[in-house]
Amino acid sequence: MYKAGHGDEKLRQEILDWMKEKRDVTLKPEQIRCEGCRSSGEDNWSSDCKMMHCAKKKGLDYCFECKEFPCDLVNAFASDGAAHHKKTVENMKRAKAIGLSAWIAEQAEKGPTFCP
Length: 116
Prior knowledge:
The protein is built from 6 helices and no strands. With about 120 residues, it is an all-alpha fold. Helix 4 crosses helix 5 and helix 5 packs across helix 6. The chain is globular.
């Protein structure tokens, strides 16, 4: 969601299409926004995100920092049929495997998708 709200137009369209097809909700492109799991709940796409609340409760910035990662909550999210949910968890697994700094560097090599 973060990348979709920060310049990844293909991903944004995928999310808009998924919301329409799976939830029968029509959103405007500008409604696809998120400032990340470390932001306040007000500027998060899903202020009721169970994974975000779990990580915050444990004092973690990211789910993948948890010794239980990937837990049932994360696995359910990844397998709910939304391609972008699966992609999110794959990204978290990669970040855990190589470290956050290396993962960020990999993302930068793929080309800019947002402006910090």
